[in-house]
Amino acid sequence: MKLCLACEHRFTGSEWSCPRCGRSPARRRGYPVFAPERDDHTDDYDASLFDRLAALEPGNYWFEARNRLIVWALRRFFPEARSFLEIGCGTGFVLRAIHRALPALTLAGTDVHSRGLAYAGARVPGARLFQMDARRIPFEDEFDVVGAFDVLEHIDNDELVLAESGRALRHGGGLLITVPQHPFLWSPVDRHARHQRRYTRADLTAKIRRAGLAPAYATSFVSLLLPAMLASRIARRGEGRAADPLPELHVGRATNMTLAAILRLERLLIAAGLSFPVGGSLLVVARRPE
Question: If you placed Cys at 168, which of 35, 139, 148, 253 could pair as Cys (CB 3.0 to 4.6 Å)?
Fold first, then answer.
């Protein structure tokens, strides 16, 4: 069900024009824009990174490993899902992986920056794409699963995003989240990436509960690489605000293959039932009560 952000009217149909007040979103770069004042706003994310990310993501050990973990979680916890919304879809790299693995899913993606949606539209032509502020989602009781992958840490009011995500879910639907973990890993890389925080498992699950959702599963990941990640962050603490986060992901071919193999082993251990207690990132699965 659609929600008019101007008058709060709930309606259905393929068009976005509100039958009560007549308001409809403008379009930019070919996509509906629900928060034009936030488009290309750089306090929470540097939209200029989209160009670099689109080139870096394919084949990169970290992005590919996270995609495989997300697809595993979708299959494991939501095998009957028919619709999926990604909040903060960026260049569409995750959406494309989900489409390839689960082609029957109806996909939608949103981002506060319409600039990234052009990449997402090219990668997943069949997905519905929208520009919006995740703190005000124009859907209610609409999706079987909502995902937010390394998004919450960029947003000041992350609890509002969780509540809005829950409202966009159908009753019994599920939420998939990945976030950077462990405050002790905080470094200038996080500041440069426009992060507001790094999470603990207890902190995130408590926020999920306050949003009216029920945590169902949690595991750390990038766990086997945690010592190397910690060493890298310590070494870069002297870089100040110039600490570009992407060089950590730019590695040589041999190193990339080695790191990918380590993360592949980690995912197999998670799939076999191991929940890692520590790691550079955290995956949490939650459900909206029936």
Answer: 139
* Contact yes or no for 67/94 (Cβ under 8 A): yes
Q: Residue 189: which domain range?
A: 22-287
Confidence band (pLDDT; 50, 70, 90) for 215? very high
- Distance from C-alpha of 144 to C-alpha of 167, rounded to nearest angstrom: 11
Specify the range with the lowest mean pLDDT, choosing from 38-52, 176-190, 224-238: 38-52
Question: For 201-229, what is the mean pLDDT?
Answer: 97
Q: Is the pLDDT of residue 277 over 80?
A: yes
Q: Residue type at 289?
A: P
- The Cα–Cα gap between 40 and 229 comes to 30
The verdict on residue 7 lying in a domain is: no
Phi-psi region of 240 (alpha: psi -120 to 50; beta: other; left: phi over 0): left
Q: Which run of H or of E encompasses 205?
A: helix 201-210
Please tell me the total count of domains within the chain: 1
Residue with tokens 């090219």: 122
**Residue 40 lies inside a defined structural domain of this protein:** yes
The model's confidence at residue 273, banded by pLDDT at 50, 70 and 90, is: very high
- Could you tell me if residue 120 is inside a domain? yes
* φ/ψ of residue 284, rounded to 5: -130, 135
Name the strand (E) or helix (H) holding 266: helix 253-271
Given a contact cutoff of 8 angstroms between Cβ atoms, the answer to whether 90 and 62 are in contact is no
Q: Is the pLDDT of residue 243 over 90?
A: no
- Residue 225 in any domain: the answer is yes
Find out whether 50 and 58 touch, Cβ atoms under 8 Å. Answer: no
Domain of 108: which CATH number?
Answer: 3.40.50.150
Task: Give the predicted TM-score (pTM) of the model.
Answer: 0.95
